[in-house]
Amino acid sequence: MRALAHPAHDEIELDAVLSALADPVRRRIVHQLATGHDDQACIAFDLPVTKSTSTHHFRVLREAGVIRQHYQGTAKLSTLRADDLETRFPGLLPAILTATAAEKADLEKAGTEKIGTEKADL
Amino acid sequence: MRALAHPAHDEIELDAVLSALADPVRRRIVHQLATGHDDQACIAFDLPVTKSTSTHHFRVLREAGVIRQHYQGTAKLSTLRADDLETRFPGLLPAILTATAAEKADLEKAGTEKIGTEKADL
DNA sequence: ATGGTTGTACGACGGTTTTCGTACTACGGT
DNA sequence: ACCGTAGTACGAAAACCGTCGTACAACCAT
Predict the structure, then answer these.
(1) For residue A48, is it within any domain?
(2) Which one of A80, B27, B38, B121 has the fewest beta carbons within 10 angstroms of its own beta carbon?
């Protein structure tokens, strides 16, 4: 059994959490963990990156205290630390999940409604 | 009068907002804007960085849609776009502000309670 | 007009992050 | 014992980010 370091619930730092969640790939992981069932293996995530990059992202999330990971055979199962996060930073995770969903819906709507229309300026 | 680009309220992107708020200096700015009065000049923020770095951070916040800025003479006044953010990503800003305050209190408590005590591991 | 205040532009530097590929380990099944 | 699957470690490359200093622009007061 390989050991995995996790910060205690009161050691979770806002900086680490926000940095972790600022990345779209990692937000995608978190979103899938939130909407799907618990304990999903890394392989279950269809990420647009290679295996080693994927390992990296999961590690960042774990070390930030966003997810908990444990081995089960060769598989490494991940769970959202929703309760710990809620205790430490109330409302933060739900707000980000809502925002992620909102933006996703937004992009899909834009995609179906006005195909070929571009934003002019930044 | 110099013009300043701001994203429209429905152009605010989650990625930009989270990236902007992932930086402690910028979170400090936002926190001061939230707790103090509106329309504070950059100079009113006692930031641990030089002027040019400060300019940079304000620009990042503005381009992310977190703050609104306008000139008044040589001064550049900043306001939190709390309403726009609330419309776009409900609960996000309040949660981050609460979290910022929570962590700040935490650090101060740690500082007064156990001076000289260090964290052993990461 | 001259000078002071407030902020910007630009280039540079150093550190971190994201990404990859390759080689490797751990475990389960047959 | 062997193979396949799941994931890690490590090193490298490229991009990005935060910081600074210097030089500059805009504006106000006198």
Answers:
(1) yes
(2) B121
- Which of A92, A102, A122 has the CB atom closest to B95's CB atom? A92
Q: Is position A102 within any domain? A: no
Per-residue pLDDT of chain B (122 residues; tens, 9 = 90+): 577 899 999 999 999 999 999 999 999 999 999 998 878 898 889 899 999 999 999 999 999 999 999 999 889 999 999 999 999 999 999 999 999 999 888 777 776 765 544 444 43
Q: Which domain holds residue A44?
A: 1-88
Distance (Å, whole) CA A42 – CA A69: 10
What region does A9 belong to: left with phi over 0, alpha with psi -120 to 50, or beta? alpha
Nucleotides of C under 7 A from a protein CB: 4-11, 17-23, 26-28
Contact A70, A11 (CB under 8 A): no
Q: Determine if strand D comes within 7 Å of the CB of A45.
A: no
